[in-house]
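seq:
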Amino acid sequence: MKYFFFLSFLLFTISLPCHSQIKIGLKAGPSIVNIQEIVSFPELGEYTSNGQARLAYQVGSFISFPWKKKFSFRLEALISNKGEQIPISNINDQPAQLDLFYINLPVLIDFKASPNFSFQLGPELGYLIFAKTTIGSPTGDLTRLLRRWDMGLSGGSKFALTQKLSLGLRYSQGFITVNPGGFLANVRFNGIGRLLQWNQAVQLSLNYCIQS
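struct:
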């Protein structure tokens, strides 16, 4: 929660000296997250697979700068929960879960296709603040074992419900592998082969504009 307030304050401070056409607001919503995987075995080659998708969330703030008649820049500061449902079970037959908590900073170009509908596309920088695995009740801290920085591409659309409320739908694909040392490969495949992993997320959000 402290990261959320810090990021919101940062965006608010940036916007203070700016003109009145700038839009500032808050956003939150559910996500469907997963991890894209490439598994490499010395004798069998490579194959691509995905873990099991699960429900997560994202919350944060945004600021939008007008650029041209139909274009604007949108900066966001988010706390995002990512990861996957790991297809292994513990002694109580409960699935394991990988939770990755990021500070994400999307930098988007917004194209206004109609008065109420726009498309968004741009890069997204991420910093891992905490990572854990949960198998039933026990929890393991993986933060030091995983790559802290992430970079990806986000694209989607936004539909204005009212002057202050809008709905957003977005897909985010990471380009930097989550586990640089193959640690998760050792867990899942008992040390056989190597596993490369990239974050994926489909995000639905409700946006509330504080200043417009």
